[in-house]
């Protein structure tokens, strides 16, 4: 979701300068909030200070939810997912020439959302389902506040999906690690090791700081409601962590995984690096896999209490990640 019109950044603050169409000049600066606030909060403050009546568009509805306590109470991973979904939704062009985010909130029908879902499904069927799920959350939030009567997202027919069952073999894993090191990647290979050894998600590794390194092991703050754990040291885990620490020490960064300026690595940078290495990997005749498949490999290969090792609270969730095949006796 972009900034409102005529809003910019000045001296660490979001500034709104209303434009006068008659004089063709901008008016006096109005401070909205500091730059550490979310885009949703900027929109909320912008709507408060704008003297023109706020049009209750889909963009407005989403911004209201993103500025709410319900959104703040979500886990970090869910927040990031919702922000991605909101940006995609509000900026999608319609056949009418309008932007989806500029459609009046109450005028959006189940049919309109189904068409949006069908269009998105051609490129990203799973993501299309998630975006409709996010819209349903937004509509329900407004419905509880009498801002809208119905939730048109509840009637959408979503794409059927099956659980991912890709298991990365040791051969595949070692081949990719070798390519990552040979390519001079600063952080992909050690991140892979941590993902596998700690059964960790990418965001959990990206959020790690040097303060998470303890004498007993590595602190892993799990996302999506899973249990935070200390992963005990092994020689292999120490090696991976030390590679990242050596890099962060050179520029005095607090983050284990960081960019060349010492700032926390962002999704775009990681995706670019990962995609580049995956291309080289596939060119060698291997079948690609996702970074998230490494957590599943770690859970599948673990010899012990897999539920505890994964940090999951339910067996159902564990089953998503345990991709080992059962061995059963043949019929006599």
Q: What labels describe this entry?
A:
332 residues, mainly alpha, DNA polymerase, domain 1, hpI Integrase, Chain A, 2 domains, three-stranded antiparallel beta sheet, two-stranded antiparallel ribbon, 7 strands
Question: Can you walk me through this structure?
Answer:
The chain has two domains: about 5-155, DNA polymerase, domain 1, CATH 1.10.150; about 170-320, hpI Integrase, Chain A (Orthogonal Bundle), CATH 1.10.443. The protein contains 14 helices and seven strands. The protein has helices at about 40-50, 60-65, 70, 75-90, 110-120, 125-145, 170-180, 190-200, 200-205, 235-250, 265-285, 295-300, 305-310, 315-320; strands spanning about 5-10, 15, 20, 25, 30-35, 215-220, 230. Strands 1-2-5 form a three-stranded antiparallel sheet, with helices on one face. Strands 3-4 form a two-stranded antiparallel ribbon. Helix 2 packs antiparallel against helix 4 and helix 4 (about 75-90) crosses helix 6 (about 125-145). The mean pLDDT is about 85.
Brief description of this entry?
This protein is mainly α and 332 residues long. It has helices spanning 39-49, 58-66, 69-72, 76-90, 110-121, 125-143, 170-182, 188-198, 202-206, 235-251, 267-283, 293-301, 306-310, 315-321, and strands at residues 7-10, 13-16, 19-20, 25-26, 30-34, 217-220, 229-232.
Structural domains: how many? 2
Note the overall shape. globular
Q: How much of the sequence is in beta strands? A: 5-15%
Task: Summarize model confidence as the mean pLDDT.
Answer: 86
